[in-house]
Design a protein that fits this description.
single chain; 440 residues; alpha+beta; 3-hydroxy-3-methylglutaryl-coenzyme A Reductase, Chain A, domain 2; Alpha-Beta Plaits; 4 domains; 4-stranded antiparallel β-sheet; 16 helices; globular; binds (R)-mevalonate
């Protein structure tokens, strides 16, 4: 067992590394070598990464891939994806190509409102609180002006502030429930700064509000924080074509494919065990683009999963139908994204990813991200209802297995060739590699 350490954050980077490698690793030199191997050779870029977080000891690389041929509202995109899982980029690319020949993806931003709340405790008369709030509301806007001025000049700002009574849930619990338009910024800092200012104004005005008794003045602010649940920051993505045009190969008819596809979606709509995996596949696409474009994938995940349970049961994010011979597959999801602020102007690869997407507005990025999710789900359901997921997945996983066994380039190409006509499994790959090496 190691001992605890105080003052770790104040140590220099090399001292931190020394402590880590000497405390936790049997081979300290090897551990140090691995950490250093992932440092960037350009000191400025390394310093940038060091300063993104605290106690940085190395960089954790994820591959950045691209999926070309995405036709979205008539415009062609190559979508950047940062993800470690094999098959995801291939699946996205395959869907993109499939829908490229069938009119592409149609998307629409439905709304862009974000939410923040000041949670507080008040045990006095509700009517007095309501009259205090009527007096307070314009002051909340006024005192937040220094924070909102620039955002307002660009067309955004605080949309509304409501007083919400939550005393049925917790005794004495009320909220200031505020809505915001943050334009191209994800807006977390903007919203949180406004909320903290609301709390200050609230507290100080309460102290001088005559109608409050001394006890009523003692309002306790519990916390002021944005919500990552953004059901009114919604985007829709859709694909559709004639059922007969769904025919791609001759293993299954277009009609049978459409019907199995819709059954699979229906199952995810009613069965939470399936819905979680179904939506996980959607998040493969969404997270990869969210990450590549420097956005907060934890916020996006939390918001989307909450939305998937909005009716009380966790359910599918996507839906599908056939009407008048037309197959339609669609998804509506909440997405709070930014294309300015945060990492977007700092991380060189994020800047590159955004330029690859023609430097989108936040609204455009919402649509691209939603398409990546829908495409991913289409590819997954297509595989699941036809060949099964393992066929494609293991093919993609082949390289991971070969790398795990230190295959050289010659061995890799021989084995990949061999598995063009054989079924991939972990043991089959190990066996084939063994045979190849033995026959040398
Ligand atoms: C794997 O990462 C994602 C899938 O399981 C999604 C799904 O089952 O729909 C293939």
């Amino acid at each position: 067992m190691s001992e605890s350490i105080s003052g770790f954050s104040k140590l220099s980077k090399s001292k931190k590394i020394d402590w880590i490698v000497n405390t936790y690793f049997s081979n300290a030199d090897e551990a140090k070598r691995i950490l250093e191997q992932y440092w960037h050779i350009d000191e400025k870029i390394q310093q940038l990464h060091d300063e993104f977080i605290e106690n940085t000891i190395s960089n954790y690389y994820l591959p950045l891939g691209v999926a070309p041929n995405f036709l979205i509202n008539g415009k062609l995109y190559t979508i950047p994806m940062a993800i470690e899982e094999s098959s995801v980029v291939a699946a996205a690319s395959k869907s993109a190509k499939f829908w490229l020949d069938r009119g592409g993806f149609k998307t629409k931003v439905i709304s862009t409102t974000k939410i923040g709340q000041v949670h507080f405790m008040y045990h006095g008369n509700k009517k007095t609180l309501e009259s205090f709030f009527s007096y307070l509301k314009p002051l909340l806007f006024k005192d937040a002006k220094p924070i909102t001025k620039n955002m307002e000049q660009r067309g955004g700002g605080i949309l509304d502030i409501e007083l919400r009574d939550k005393t049925n849930d917790i005794k004495g619990y009320y909220q200031l429930h505020a809505s915001f338009e943050t334009l191209n910024a994800m807006g977390a800092n903007f919203i949180n700064s406004c909320l903290e200012q609301f709390a200050k104004t609230f507290k100080s005005e309460a102290l001088i509000f005559d109608a409050f008794s001394e006890e009523e003045k003692d309002i306790q602010i519990v916390m002021s924080i944005l919500s990552n649940y953004v059901p009114d920051c919604l985007v829709r993505a859709e694909v559709s074509c004639k059922v007969e045009d769904l025919n791609e190969d001759n293993t299954i008819s277009a009609e049978e494919f459409a019907s199995k596809f819709i059954q699979a979606v229906n199952i995810a709509e009613v069965e939470p065990y399936r819905a979680v995996t179904h939506n996980k596949g959607i998040m493969n696409g969404i997270d990869a683009v969210v990450l590549a474009t420097g956005n907060d994938f934890r916020a996006v995940e939390a918001g989307i999963h909450a939305y998937a349970s909005q009716n009380g049961t966790y359910s599918s994010l996507t839906h599908a139908k056939i009407e008048n011979g037309i197959f339609t597959f669609w998804m509506e999801i909440p997405l709070a994204l930014g294309t300015v602020g945060g990492l977007t102007g700092l991380h060189p690869l994020v800047k590159l990813a955004l330029e690859l997407l023609y430097n989108p507005s936040a609204k455009e990025l919402m649509q691209i991200v939603a398409v990546a999710g829908l495409a991913q789900n289409f590819a997954a359901i297509r595989s699941l209802t036809t060949t099964g997921i393992q066929k494609g997945h293991m093919k993609m996983h082949l390289m991971n297995i070969l790398n795990q066994f230190g295959a050289n380039d010659h061995e890799k190409s021989a084995i990949i060739d061999y598995f063009k006509t054989h079924t991939v499994s972990h043991s089959a790959v190990v066996e084939a590699l063994k045979n190849l090496r033995a026959n040398k």
